[in-house]
Amino acid sequence: MPNPQVPPTGVPVPGPVLVLNGPNLNLLGLREPEVYGTDTLAGIELLCRRTAAAHGLYADCRQSNHEGVLIDAVHEARTGHRGIVINPAGYSHTSVALRDALAAVELPVVEVHLSNIHRREEFRHHSFVSAVADTVICGAGTHGYALALTHLARILEENR
Ligand code: DQA
């Protein structure tokens, strides 16, 4: 099976899509498995690359615990990527700066949360990112990332 991380040679590959995971998601698998499940970040990133590849896309997967690093990745995507799938994690509920970065780059954005944030503590009910996202998927667990990439592929196809 071809490695979905490596675009096959000889085939024109459109710009990658950015899959950005925020703080503490590096601990997936260990972290509150009753809320977030037992899949690791590496497993989720593999799912993302495979789903992207099934739609002729290449997923550039990154994770950071630092707000500024996430913002820099979003800025970089402005010229290097065709769209963004983002789980802003805790910064969803706090970061106007991340929201502003996503608004500035004018790329299609799909926001993902593993858990259903609306069924949890009240402070998680509001996400600053949702207002600038084209689509929000929450509560579908790991599968939410596959849904997000499938939907992003559809948006890109429609905008072509
Ligand atoms: C999360 C939900 C957030 O409230 C939380 O801070 C996270 C993960 C999710 O994927 O369900 O870190 O974004």
* Bound chemical compounds: 1,3,4-trihydroxy-5-OXO-cyclohexanecarboxylic acid
Portion of residues in helices?
Answer: 25-40%
Largest sheet composition: 5 strands, parallel
Shape: globular
The CATH architecture classification is: 3-Layer(aba) Sandwich
CATH topology: Rossmann fold
Can you count the beta strands?
5
User: Taking Cα atoms only, what radius of gyration do you get, to the nearest Å?
Assistant: 15 Å
- Strand/helix succession: EHHEHEHEEH
Overall mean pLDDT score?
A: 92
Poorly predicted spans:
1-5
Structural class designation: alpha/beta
The structural domain count equals 1
**Which band does the percent of strand residues land in?**
5-15%
CATH superfamily: Dehydroquinase, class II
Structure description:
With 160 residues, this protein is an alpha/beta fold. It has one domain (17-158): Dehydroquinase, class II (Rossmann fold, 3-Layer(aba) Sandwich). It has helices at residues 33-36, 41-54, 67-80, 96-105, 143-158; strands at residues 17-21, 59-63, 84-87, 109-113, 135-138. It has a 5-stranded parallel β-sheet, sandwiched between helices. Strand 3 (84-87), helix 4 and strand 4 (109-113) form a beta-alpha-beta unit. Helix 3 runs parallel beside helix 4 (96-105). The longest helix has 16 residues, at 143-158. The model is unreliable at 1-5 (pLDDT under 50). 1,3,4-trihydroxy-5-OXO-cyclohexanecarboxylic acid is lined by residues 24, 87, 89-90, 92, 113-115, 117, 124.
